[in-house]
Amino acid sequence: MKRKVFFLFCLLTILLLSSCSVELVNPDSLIAAPKSNQEKLQKKQLITSFLGQEENLIVPEDMNHNEAYRYVDLDNDGEDEIVAFYANRQNNFILGFLVLDQRDQQWYLSHKAIAYGMDIHFFSAEDLDGDGAMELMLGVHTGYGSQKELYFYQLEDGELRESTEGDRVTYDQMTLAQTVDGGELLVTARMDTSILEGSSNITVYRYCDGGLQQLYDETFSGYCSEIHFDCVAKGQNGVYLAMRHNHFVNILLLKETEENFAVLMEQPLPYDYEDMNDLKLFYDENSDGIVEINSLWEPEHNAVGKIYKDYIQVWLQWDGQDSVYAVDAVLENISDGYQFRVPLEWMDMLYYDFRRDEHAVNWVDFYYENAEQQYEDVFSFAAIDQLVWENMEDVDSIIVLGNNPTNNKVYVAEIYTGEFNGFKVDASRLISCLKIEGGERK
């Protein structure tokens, strides 16, 4: 005990002589939020201070980030303003956005836009007419089905003015696009559901002289469920339109021509639109800078109840004329951690089925029609749980293509014929088709 007292006395003496101070830790500091979260909270509190008591911040539906505000340099002064989105709690039909600017390092409310609708669908700030000043676009849900209304605003002499008042655009789907010379365009789809077949009116606008100029207007059968502007061929941009019918989707390619705009390609896809929710229709699948269209290669038999996302997805690219060609054919199973790419040269000759065996293993069987017009098996592929694989018997004819320790999966194939229609089928060929996430091939 005396030693402890002596030790504490010596420690205190050293601290006093060295003029050190001891700071006790505040328990609150141990549970303080990270700085980034604190900054977000402070920013939200700042923005909220400019709202009325009946107003609250909301997140637009079509925002890339789940935030109720964004930073935009609206006046080209090199400093970002804050654009924040709000709704009126007491009147469900009033909403809009605020613009906060800085003066002498203090934020103030510079503009407030009021719109009318049930929710905010879209917001963008672009120099649409190339005059160096931003135009602000606000899309709101009208409350009538999927219909929306688009407001355009301009900053003029320090004031925010709605340039489309009395002449707003109504739409169900929309996207921004560009002309060949880099000008900004607006492409919209308005659906007519009053008739059984249904149709969609596709319109292309250009913004100039403070208003919208219509460049193209045409009506097509089907409901337009998606509009996508992107590079559709080397050095060429276009707009893909997904037109839904009862049991298929028709893809249209709308493209600028020397005369005006025209639909240059139609491609029907075997989709039932009710099951399309988990599918990505337009994507640069092979990373060549050109967007592809996701078609489906349907199985001949589906005894295990597989859904669209389990089918082989065939990615189609526009050929520059009036048709498409396949650039990839992928059997993908994210939960089982693999992609199996079917060689494109095999596609026109193969059929496939989904099958479940006595071990509850799901197999994909590939087969073809031989010279005698009889179906002949080529190979089968499966992802098997490691434990099931270890307890399986009579596996001498099964080839292991790879494994995934993370998912405890073994990827196997059974080859029934070494050649079909001049194409060689062996283990090395199938291994080259397999991509494993977090595992390894043989």
Describe the structure.
It is a single chain. The strands form seven sheets. This protein has a seven-stranded mixed β-sheet with strand order 21-25-26-27-29-28-33. The longest helix has 16 residues, at 2-17. The chain has five helices and 33 strands. A hairpin with an 8-residue loop joins strand 6 and strand 7 (135-141). It is elongated, with a radius of gyration of 31 Å. It is mainly β and 442 residues long. Residues 4-9 and 11-34 have low confidence and may be disordered.
Q: Quote the average pLDDT.
A: 88
| Biggest β-sheet strands, sense, barrel | 7 strands, mixed
Separation, N- and C-terminal Cα atoms: 68 Å
Major sheet strand order: 21-25-26-27-29-28-33
Give me the count of strands. Answer: 33
What helical percentage do the residues reach? 10-25%
- Gyration radius (Cα, Å) is 31 Å
Tertiary shape: elongated
Q: How many separate helices? A: 5
Structural class: mainly beta
Can you tell me the residue ranges where pLDDT is under 50 for at least 5 consecutive residues? 4-9, 11-34
SS strand fraction: over 45%
Name the quaternary structure.
Answer: single chain
